Amino acid sequence: MRTFNFTKMHGLGNNYIYVNMLEERLNEEQLPELARKVSNPYTGIGSDGMILICPSEIAPVKMRVFNNDGSEAKNCGNGLRCVAKYSYENGIVSDTSFEIETLGGLVTAEITEVDGIVKQVLVNMGKPRLKPSELPLLGFEKEVVSEPVVFGGSRLDMTAVSMGNPHAVFFIENIQDAPLTTLGPVIEKDPMFPEWVNAEFVEMVSEKEMHFRVWERGSGVTQACGTGACAAAVAAVLNGKAHRGDDITVHLAGGDLIINWTEAGDVLMTGPAETICTGTFFVND
Ligand SMILES: N[C@H](CCC[C@H](N)C(=O)O)C(=O)O
């Protein structure tokens, strides 16, 4: 019987099964199925997906992200904070500031620790990508900022932002009315998004505060989405609802993130990361 060790961690309730690939060996072809298996709340461990902590040739560590449907994503904000925490607490890195390689590019993490335990992580997520081709998004040539689009018979004003992974952001009057489970899956797999998309609904409280809910590509409704919160802050600035250089408090279902789209152009994300448990997973083929 094949087994491997795992650590379950979460960022604001967005939880993943983390596997240290510096110590474990998993079959590349079986990774999507394995992600589905470990994510299953009835026959697996239960999670929003699986994240691999891998060796890298260009950084101390590399993160690979698999959603609970088995699809691989290019970035994960909550995942990055947990990878940073795991890497520091398990001696993979010794500095408090270090780079992490993702499929969406290199990011820099800065940890805050108390007695060796990482409580908070600031990640420089790099620059947002705003060209439709960078999501990818079909049918548009220029940056998409509050463009009216019809999904499932409803007309929504869409702002498109990539943080290495694709996001469609919609501003609404009241977050309680977010059509998460009705329009979320329709938006996620609309043909205009050849690689599907994460859908975020935002209610602005002020120029420095917003409520946020998300239907994630490949995982559905989650408690939090770090790249989505970054995309929402960028979208708020693009729509004149917030300002570059300001700390914006994003209230997600699982808690708050502080996002700042700096004047220099990088997006900074600050928030917690927590370990839930460790264990051994039995791969029942
Ligand atoms: N579902 C996302 C990956 C996870 C992102 C999210 N959990 C985050 O914290 O950024 C995608 O397919 O692009």
Automatic annotation (TrEMBL):
| EC category name | isomerase
A single GO molecular function, which one? diaminopimelate epimerase activity
Which GO terms fall under biological process for this protein? lysine biosynthetic process via diaminopimelate
Give EC number(s), comma-separated: 5.1.1.7
Q: Which UniProt keywords apply?
A: Amino-acid biosynthesis, Cytoplasm, Isomerase, Lysine biosynthesis
- Location of this chain's protein in the cell: Cytoplasm
Q: Show the catalytic activity.
A: (2S,6S)-2,6-diaminopimelate = meso-2,6-diaminopimelate
Amino-acid biosynthesis listed as a keyword: yes
| SUPFAM superfamilies assigned | Diaminopimelate epimerase-like
**Involved pathway(s):** Amino-acid biosynthesis; L-lysine biosynthesis via DAP pathway; DL-2,6-diaminopimelate from LL-2,6-diaminopimelate: step 1/1
Q: Which GO terms describe its cellular component?
A: cytosol
Residues annotated as binding substrate are 14, 67, 77-78, 165, 198, 216-217, 226-227
The record's listing under InterPro entries reads: DAP_epimerase_AS, DAP_epimerase_DapF
Is the Cytoplasm keyword given for this protein?
yes
Top-level lineage group: Bacteria
Q: What is its main location?
A: cytoplasm
Question: Active site: which residues?
Answer: 76 (proton donor), 76, 225 (proton acceptor)
According to UniProt, where does the site described as Could be important to modulate the pK values of the two catalytic cysteine residues lie? Answer: 167, 216
Which PANTHER family does UniProt cross-reference here? DIAMINOPIMELATE EPIMERASE (PTHR31689:SF0), DIAMINOPIMELATE EPIMERASE, CHLOROPLASTIC (PTHR31689)
Which function does this protein serve?
Answer: Catalyzes the stereoinversion of LL-2,6-diaminopimelate (L,L-DAP) to meso-diaminopimelate (meso-DAP), a precursor of L-lysine and an essential component of the bacterial peptidoglycan.
Family affiliation: Belongs to the diaminopimelate epimerase family.
- Complex and partners: Homodimer.
According to UniProt, the name of this protein is Diaminopimelate epimerase
Q: What is the organism of origin for this protein?
A: Fictibacillus aquaticus
Its lineage reads: Bacteria, Bacillati, Bacillota, Bacilli, Bacillales
Gene that specifies this protein: dapF
